[in-house]
Structures are given as structure tokens and as C-alpha cells.
Design a protein that fits this description.
Blueprint: H1 3-6, H2 19-30, E1 37-41, H3 48-60, H4 76-82, E2 89-93, H5 100-107, E3 120-125, H6 132-143, E4 149-155, H7 163-166, E5 170-173, H8 179-193, H9 199-209, H10 213-226, H11 233-240, H12 245-256, H13 260-273, H14 277-297, H15 303-323, H16 326-362, H17 369-383, H18 397-402, H19 408-415, E6 418-423, E7 426-431, H20 433-436, H21 441-453, E8 460-465, H22 473-493, H23 496-504
Parallel strand pairs: 1-4, 1-5, 2-3, 3-4, 7-8
Antiparallel strand pairs: 6-7
Helix pairs in contact: 5-6, 8-9, 9-10, 9-11, 12-14, 13-16, 14-15, 15-16, 19-21
């Protein structure tokens, strides 16, 4: 029998790492504060369905010990649930029964009382896989549930369950099990099974499990078969394609030292060994995390650089999960760090050259005070933005607005307003309530600064709300876009392909039935 099944908890006391949830379930039974719906959410292998089965067993156990919070495991109910043969515990895999008809057939039996236990319990695994229609059918039952019915919903993606379902259930979020608890559990099982292991091989299995008890037991089972019940770090590493942690540490150090050739050679070696790149990503992120913490504590100037490298690998991991190309994404993340380092070195070189030039300037003869003053005046004149030769009036506002360095919400607001009047140093804009009500002082300041940067004086801005249609930059852009699409439609209609379809094959493609989807909408 697989270790994950053989050592599946049969009582609350055997569950590891979920003490908070276990205590809550014990108190529910002790105080008889029963609900009709419960949700167990969390990542794979942390005990969702196991706790659901234990809770179902506790609800129906004839000899339940309220003081100890444990089932007897000897009554007929406990034995039947342990052997998956209890009639009042109905387990459903929502991933394979997503249809509304399946759910309706299931819910038809809700009205019938349990055959032997106190409660009829429906344990639905991966409940987030149900269709909307199935959820609606389930909701009707949860709104007015019979007193003898309990729904236990297990899911890895609780955010996909409709809020109307969640609001009618007690939700328990199961956390990842700590490395220490998984390690202790593995060592206990290895001792019981007569499997020899060293600490490093166990640590490696714990690292691979990532907080999942079931994954740790599955991989331990696989490793025991591969190593003939004699686990070693070297054999487990080969089996799962995991390098020694020192190898990852060495790679990160080479990246920080900008040793490009050595990094590329190391990446090639990883590729030849067919390593587990997901673990490499995790290790690299942890190493950068530790270095960032250390640099912040020591007030090291490299903290910003380390943060950037951490972000490179974070983005690489996200891309890898989307493309399933972990090796390529890991390599690119490492090479991005080297590219940044190269740029950084050139910046340092420039600073060094500037410092050298400064020393040379300081060694030149002193200039008089009047010369310094003259230099200051010239510098101030350079810093002033050049005056814009294009006069700002309402008629040319659309062209001027296109060239302004105005971004984000500020650009969106003023793109939907009309410049109504220019009176000396005051600009008056008109716009609909939608945009006028949302604008704030910060947006106005952004426009003033953008105009000033373009060579105009710092204007006072007035904004008037109006219901009249306005000629705005946005409306002009839309007109231009519509004309562009119309021209494109004419080009399509004049094409040889459309002409042949119409003339030779009797197609009737014209302006009325030709539709173009605008990707910019």
C-alpha cells in the first residue's frame, strides 16, 4: 500500500500542522453548534479531504469522546467510513461531475433521512470545478437545508466559489505544513517502515514537498523504491533532478560578481544534467531574499540591485508557469542580471571618469568671483525651459495636447475635456460630469507642469461642468480611428480575394455585412 494511503490520519490527533482547524472542529462537535455547510480550502496535500472525512466520522460516531475530541474508530460507523463503505457519507469528485444534471440527481436524495448515522454528509472535492448551474442548484439546497444534511466542500481555489455559497458556509483555510513537522513525520514513518535515510535526504524531500504532507510521502515512496529502502542525498537528488544547494549558491555569487562566462557555463551544465528548474527558481529567490534582508540590516548600498535581481527571477518564474519552459525562463532571468551588472559597471566607469575630470578642473587656476557669478547666471538660463513659439489658443489645443508629457489618469481626464477659453494666464476647460467630478488638484498640477515643460507659462486652470457635446482630443482620436477603419474596410473590399469571392463564387461581401473588430476598443 502507498505510504500516503497507509498513513492517512484516522483521528484528529494524527493530523499534523492544522491545529487551529482541528480545535475548531472539535469545539463545533462538543458544543453541538452544527452548520449545514463547511469549506476546507488550501493547496494540495495539506489535509482538506482527510479532515472532511474525519469530521464526517466524528459527526456520526456513536462513541465520540467530547472531552478528548476523538472518534472511537471501533463502532460500525467509524469502521465503515475507514473502509469507504458508509452509506451516509457520499463523496463526489466535482472535477468529473460538473454538470447540473449530476448535481440535481445528487440533491434529490437530500430529502431522505440518513440510514444509520445522525447526519447525511456530502463531501464534494474540488468543488470550484462545478458549473454555474450546478452551484445554483446547490445554493437552493443550502438556503433551506434539512437539519440532517451537512455539506463539506473541499477546494484548492476558494476564490472560484460563488460568494453566495461561501456566505452560507463556515470556511477553514488550511495552511502549508511547516518543514519541521514534515521532516518529523517522514522520519517517524521511515523508522516504522524500516527505511534507512540520512538527514540531508530527508531535508531534500521536505524541500520538494513545499508544505504538502501527501507530496512528501509520495516522493518518499518513490525514493524508497528507487534506492531499495536506503535513501541518500545523492540518490534522491538524481531521482528528482535536484542539485546540491551549494551549486545554486555558487551560481548566485557568480551573478553578483558579474562573471558572465562562468554563469553561462554553469547554466549549460544545468541543462545537461536535466535539473528541476522549479526548485532552482525557489532556491534562487530564497537566496536573494536572504541577501536583501542582510543588506538592509547592514545598510548596504547593493540592496536596490538585489531587489531588482529578485524581481527578475520572480518574473521569470511567472513566465515559466505560463509557458512551461522553466529552463529558458531561468536562463533568461540569470542573463538579465548579468546585463544589468554590465550596465552598472559602465555607469561606475562614467562616474569614475567624471571624478577624474573634476580633479583636473580643481587643479586649474582659480577664477574671479565675477566669473563664478556669470557662470551661475548662464546655468540658470539653461535650466529654464525654452519658450514655445506655438501660441496656445483653443483652435490648436488638440495638436498641442498630443505633444504634452502628460500620463495616466491626468491625461485621460483632460483628453476628454475641451479647452473653452484662453484668457491671459488662465485656461478654462469644459467637460461632462463624469470627468469633472473625478478630477483633483493633483491632475491639474500635472497639466500645469506638462505645459510648463513644453515651454508655456504656468497657467491657472478653471474647469466647468457642461452637458453639451465637446470637441476633445479623445473625440478627435475616435474620429480618426473610425476613418482609419473605414479606409481599411474599403481596401479589403477592393482586394482580389473579395472580388474573386463575389464574382466567381457568388459571395455577397459588401460594406453592410463586413464587420471589423477594433483591437484598440
Amino acid at each position: 500500500m502507498a505510504l500516503a494511503n497507509k498513513y492517512r490520519p484516522k483521528s484528529f490527533s494524527e493530523v499534523i500542522g492544522q491545529e487551529t482547524t482541528v480545535n475548531a472542529l472539535r469545539n463545533i462537535i462538543k458544543n453541538k453548534n452544527f452548520h449545514n455547510g463547511y469549506i476546507f480550502s488550501g493547496t494540495r496535500g495539506v489535509g482538506k479531504t482527510t479532515l472532511g472525512r474525519l469530521f464526517a466520522k466524528a459527526l456520526n460516531c456513536t462513541n465520540y469522546d467530547s472531552e478528548k475530541g476523538e472518534t472511537c474508530n471501533v463502532c460500525s460507523v467509524c469502521e465503515e467510513i475507514n473502509s469507504n463503505s458508509h452509506l451516509d457519507l457520499i463523496e463526489i469528485d466535482a472535477a468529473s461531475r460538473t454538470g447540473v444534471d449530476d448535481m440535481r440527481d445528487l440533491l434529490e436524495s437530500v430529502q431522505y433521512r440518513p440510514s444509520s448515522g445522525k447526519f447525511k454528509i456530502y463531501l464534494i472535492d474540488e468543488v470550484h470545478m462545478l458549473s454555474i448551474q450546478s452551484f445554483n442548484a446547490l445554493l437552493k439546497t443550502l438556503e433551506e437545508p434539512p437539519a440532517h444534511v451537512v455539506f463539506i466542500l473541499a477546494t484548492t481555489e476558494a476564490h472560484k466559489i460563488p460568494k453566495t455559497i461561501v456566505s452560507r458556509c463556515l470556511q477553514f483555510n488550511l495552511k502549508l505544513v511547516s518543514d519541521e513537522l514534515i521532516s518529523q513525520n517522514l522520519k517517524r514513518i521511515f523508522e516504522s517502515e524500516g527505511i534507512s535515510s540520512d538527514d540531508k535526504s530527508v531535508d531534500l524531500l521536505v524541500e520538494l514537498a513545499k508544505g504538502s504532507v501527501r507530496d512528501s510521502l509520495t516522493m518518499a515512496d518513490q525514493a524508497a523504491s528507487h534506492c531499495d529502502n536506503k535513501l541518500s542525498e545523492n540518490e534522491v537528488s538524481k531521482l528528482h533532478g535536484v542539485l546540491n544547494i551549494s551549486s545554486t549558491t555558487k551560481l548566485i555569487e557568480m551573478i553578483l560578481l558579474n562573471e558572465s562566462a562562468e554563469v553561462v557555463n554553469e547554466l549549460k551544465r544545468y541543462s545537461e544534467l536535466d535539473v528541476n528548474y522549479e526548485i532552482l527558481f525557489d532556491r534562487a529567490l530564497k537566496l536573494f531574499h536572504d541577501k536583501i534582508m542582510e543588506s538592509v540590516v547592514n545598510k548596504d548600498s547593493k540592496a536596490d540591485e538585489l531587489n531588482l535581481f529578485y524581481q527578475f527571477f520572480c518574473n521569470g518564474l511567472v513566465d515559466a508557469k505560463q509557458t512551461s519552459s522553466f529552463r529558458d525562463c531561468f536562463d533568461i532571468a540569470a542573463l538579465r542580471c548579468l546585463t544589468f551588472n554590465s550596465n552598472d559597471e559602465s555607469e561606475v566607469k562614467k562616474k569614475h571618469e567624471n571624478a577624474t575630470n573634476l580633479i583636473e578642473l580643481e587643479s586649474e587656476p582659480e577664477v574671479t568671483q565675477s566669473q563664478h557669478e556669470h557662470d551661475d547666471i548662464e546655468l540658470k538660463e539653461v535650466k529654464e525651459p525654452p519658450k514655445n513659439l506655438q501660441k496656445l489658443v483653443s483652435s490648436n489645443w488638440l495638436n498641442i495636447f498630443d505633444g504634452l508629457d502628460l500620463r495616466g489618469a491626468s491625461r485621460a481626464f483632460f483628453a476628454n475635456m475641451q479647452l473653452d477659453n484662453v484668457d491671459g494666464s488662465k485656461l478654462t476647460f469644459k467637460g461632462s460630469e463624469t470627468f469633472v467630478s473625478g478630477i483633483n488638484e493633483s491632475n491639474i498640477n500635472d497639466l500645469v507642469e506638462a505645459l510648463h515643460k513644453a515651454g508655456y507659462p504656468k497657467y491657472d486652470i478653471a474647469i466647468i461642468e457642461t452637458k453639451e457635446a465637446q470637441v476633445t482630443p479623445s473625440s478627435k482620436w475616435q474620429e480618426a480611428r473610425i476613418k482609419e477603419l473605414d479606409d481599411f474596410k474599403e481596401e479589403i473590399l477592393r482586394s482580389d480575394l473579395v472580388q474573386n469571392l463575389n464574382n466567381k463564387y457568388g459571395a455577397n461581401i459588401n460594406r453592410e455585412n463586413l464587420s471589423i473588430k477594433d483591437h484598440e476598443e
